[in-house]
Amino acid sequence: MKKTYIPKEISWLYFNERVLQEAECKETPILERIKFLGIYSNNLDEFFRVRVATLKRLASLGKKAIQIISYNPKIVLKEINEIVLEQQNEFAEIFKNILKELTKLNIFIINEKQLSKEQEEFVHNYFHKRVRPKLMPIMFDQIKSFPDLKDEAIYFAVCLKSTKKSKYKYALIEIPSGEIPRFLVLPDIGDKKYLIMLDDIIRYALKDIFYIFDFDEIDAFTIKLTKDAELDINDDITDSYIKNISKSLKKRKEGQPVRFLFDKDIPIILLKVLTKKLKLKKDDAIIPGGRYHNFKDFIKFPKIGGKKFLYSDFIPVPHPEIHLQSSIFSSIREKDIMLHFPYHSFNYFMELLREASIDPNVSSIKITLYRVAKSSNVINTLINAAKNGKNVTALVELQARFDEEANILWSNKLRDEGVRVIHGVPGVKVHAKVCLLSRNEKGRVINYACLSTGNFNEDTAEIYADDLLITSNKKITNEAIKLFDFFDINYKRDTFYHLMVSPFNLRNKIASLINNEIKNAKKGKEAYIKLKLNNLVDIQIINLLYQASNAGVKVYLNIRGMNSLVPGIDEFSININGISIVDRFLEHTRILIFCNGNSEKYFISSADLMARNIDRRVEIICPIYDKNIQKELNDIFEIQWKDNVKARIIDDKMSNKLKHNKSDIKIHAQNAIYDYLIKKSN
What we know:
Elements: H1 8-24, H2 30-59, H3 63-69, H4 73-104, E1 107-110, H5 117-131, E2 154-162, E3 167-174, E4 183-189, E5 192-197, H6 198-204, H7 206-209, E6 217-227, H8 241-253, E7 257-263, H9 268-277, E8 285-289, H10 328-334, E9 337-341, H11 347-358, E10 362-369, H12 377-387, E11 391-396, H13 404-416, E12 420-422, E13 429-430, E14 433-441, E15 444-452, E16 464-471, H14 474-488, E17 500-502, H15 506-522, E18 528-533, H16 539-551, E19 554-559, E20 576-581, E21 586-587, E22 591-594, E23 601-605, H17 611-615, E24 617-623, H18 627-641, E25 647-649, H19 669-681
Parallel strand pairs: 1-5, 7-8, 10-11, 11-12, 13-24, 16-21, 18-19, 19-20
Antiparallel strand pairs: 2-3, 2-6, 4-5, 6-7, 9-16, 10-14, 14-15, 15-16, 17-24, 18-22, 20-25, 22-23, 23-24
């Protein structure tokens, strides 16, 4: 019998393979392909730090773990290692081919042994001016305890050999790629352009670094340790929430190893010394790799060679309902507004906040913040609103993974500037994206709500595809008020009739919508479900979708990332089809459409259909009542469903094959959505 569930971790690896396929795609501009290698690498780092680390914890529970996650973590860990090794080989081959293509374009990434005399002088001067002051070698054969390797950092394990004395000395050097760019652009030679990596600059100067020792051979081999990044939050109520998070962040730096990467050419004796000193076990992921690690730095690959090697400039679509020379509030009063990022500019939302910050009729602004931009205009506008006498409340979620330290700093800054700050809800993460603006109009208070599938973050809004609804509809604004009341008083639990709010009613309402389709299908009525999500892994909901398929409900899945449901299986999912799109913009929008007896129901969501989102987070699934916006969402879903350029089929083999439509016409969804919205703006 075929599998009926795919472990989410295995499914995630095949999502990351789709990212790798973009690096391989010849139609993607070459420098963007290099960035996809960086994205793949960065994704894999986080995967080991979080998901593999969690599986390793579960593996220590024995049979109890199978009851918790429905599969054996030890078996999955073994499968992960096999898939990762296979993908590493695929990665190396793609990188090698990209290097060949770059040489045809007169762009050369050279190493320390390929430098001309002029280039050697340039590298020598750069090393002593910029790099040498940052290097702090540790002679680990001279010390008792091995230094604690930083997570996410790369190191050289240096071997100094004296053939006369038959002696070895070993050193460790952290490559300072966090402080110095990973790539150095060398002076052109004619029409040829050259780059060298920071790693090879250090290799070039190894003899200068260790000149005091007697050696006749010296080599450096890259190593990298990935650690468990899960936070253990102490529930001691005598400690403040911020203190607990801060303590846990310190523990993260001391987390258990979950992956050790090393240069496959490293001498066996040195590898044994390192694995012993790092206390690595046989079942740890000890993975041989190439000469370079931390390919995530390739995301910042220099823009060398001109614009022709990059995606074309992207000009946001003007929104037909918003005119920046007139009040945005007046536009919202007339009808609901939907912004589709990055096709529409995030500046529309920023202009609404700026207008609210100086409008004498606006009395309060409330907002949830999960991840914000590094130099956040959202934060600055909230501070400005507080200075203008508005009552500003910001719920800052301190448990936003890998943004905890930044969010602590932001919350302190907001509080110092007069903003009232709430730190989440004990026991659950607040992942809902909602902003509530209250305005005095003709003697009464009118509320305006902004509900988004993504963060209020101007940086990610340029590269993540997300939807943001702005409405004055009382059905929604009144329930947004209830939500902020709950944030204020955690034991005040209200009833939500329109919004689906986890962990309160979201699971039951989703189940009710699916069961309604099952009921209609059994009556012979048309029944279908369209879901566009990042992740679909909740077993209870998957079982309901299997029941729906068996009842004759047509289910259309567009899942970017993890997906534990297996389409196309007899007696389970014969009426379920799935695609996944990886492209220039990260598909982050979550849309849910239910036939509902041909009176369709539409929703956008901050939540994926995962147990953690439904049961252990505060999330919102928001209904869309405006008929024009409903049509827009359906049109966009259909455009993506017809994609035959970037859409890959989700199947039981996880083959990641491109979807080919019967039509000879190429449909590239992200380009087609842009064209669709351009037409609507005219």
